[in-house]
């Protein structure tokens, strides 16, 4: 028995979906514990691509139970559309395969309207939000005025809560943000229809997961975004609105930390970032464009081009520490196939001083310059490798270098987008 948490080790978009899909083979339950549909996980099975935003990536496996924990914020429209697309592809034949915790907070139309209006009015102080209403929903959760799924499926409770909160939201939209107010009846009609479809998925994640663990089953916990976007430990305020690190798996599902056995951090062989915020190894040049095109670095949720840069060991060491990582899964190694040399950032230079630890202060981080070590590229196609021994010596040496500079062992290497283009060095479930 083992319970494994998957986390993004960078600024998100590291390829968590593929890794979760692979590890689902060994798990009984797959659990999403934070975030919302601002995250997109891309999966390639055979030649078919599937993009998921809310439903755990394990849903592509028959007989696996997928659970959305209380730490997630749920857009009912997006969720139901995702279910419909999966069913049309022949997945999710049994609705009992999918459970949504009653304590998930619901993304309402005013959350999205406020999110978009705030970003529009921010000028050069934009955060880079996706405009999906994630942040405002978490605000209402913390402010104790949110609407949860358990409220939504009870018409009288839903109507009462909406009646209490909507006047304040409309005042903000109309008087401060200069946007049109929203209709209470229109929201009641739309979301009442969603409630009828959602009720069959309602359950208690904490009870289900703890029972599964006590019965000796394997549980895989799936995070969204990345460690450096954590609301407490990331590059605040250029972060998401939830706890993206491994500790979020406990608060976002209702399990105790003693049940977590392994924490696997997913990291690209280079780095990308979407949205605003400091990015010490960013490449605003031809090499940056080369990585973007070779890696197809465009957001699966937004389509936005991602910022690209060399591997940042300083930032990765921060993620290793805050998550208690036991292993690294390195993705998109194949994107580096054609490079003569590859750079790895091993420290930061701050006004002549060498820093080995990631600065917690944003202004300090903005002034940091990367200190690089250069390693030899492998100049060959590695997409068919099924073991580290099959890799060119330079590629194997690159992995060793990443282990050395991060202090964390590599347990998986992705050499292409398909399931079979994966090297499993060590299985965290074994």
From TrEMBL:
UniProt cross-references to CDD domains, sorted A to Z: AdSS
Biological or metabolic pathway of the protein: Purine metabolism; AMP biosynthesis via de novo pathway; AMP from IMP: step 1/2
InterPro entries: Adenylosuccin_syn_GTP-bd, Adenylosuccin_syn_Lys_AS, Adenylosuccinate_synth_dom1, Adenylosuccinate_synth_dom2, Adenylosuccinate_synth_dom3, Adenylosuccinate_synthetase, P-loop_NTPase
Binding-site list for GTP: 12-18, 40-42, 306, 332-334, 414-416
Entry cofactors: Mg(2+)
Enzymatic reactions: IMP + L-aspartate + GTP = N(6)-(1,2-dicarboxyethyl)-AMP + GDP + phosphate + 2 H(+)
Cross-referenced SUPFAM superfamilies: P-loop containing nucleoside triphosphate hydrolases
PROSITE patterns attached to this UniProt entry: ADENYLOSUCCIN_SYN_1 (PS01266), ADENYLOSUCCIN_SYN_2 (PS00513)
Subcellular location: Cytoplasm
EC number per UniProt: 6.3.4.4
Gene3D superfamilies: Adenylosuccinate Synthetase, subunit A, domain 1, Adenylosuccinate Synthetase, subunit A, domain 2, Adenylosuccinate Synthetase, subunit A, domain 3
Predominant subcellular localization, coarse grouping: cytoplasm
Cofactor: binding details: Binds 1 Mg(2+) ion per subunit.
A Pfam family matched in the record: Adenylsucc_synt
Active site: 13, 41, 141
Residues annotated for IMP binding in this entry: 13-16, 38-41, 130, 144, 225, 240, 304
Alphabetical keyword list: Cytoplasm, GTP-binding, Ligase, Magnesium, Metal-binding, Nucleotide-binding, Purine biosynthesis
Binding site for substrate: 300-306
Annotated function: Plays an important role in the de novo pathway of purine nucleotide biosynthesis. Catalyzes the first committed step in the biosynthesis of AMP from IMP.
Family that this chain belongs to: Belongs to the adenylosuccinate synthetase family.
NCBIfam families documented for this protein: PRK01117.1, purA
Subunit text: Homodimer.
Protein name (Swiss-Prot/TrEMBL): Adenylosuccinate synthetase
Species this protein is from: Desulfuromonas versatilis
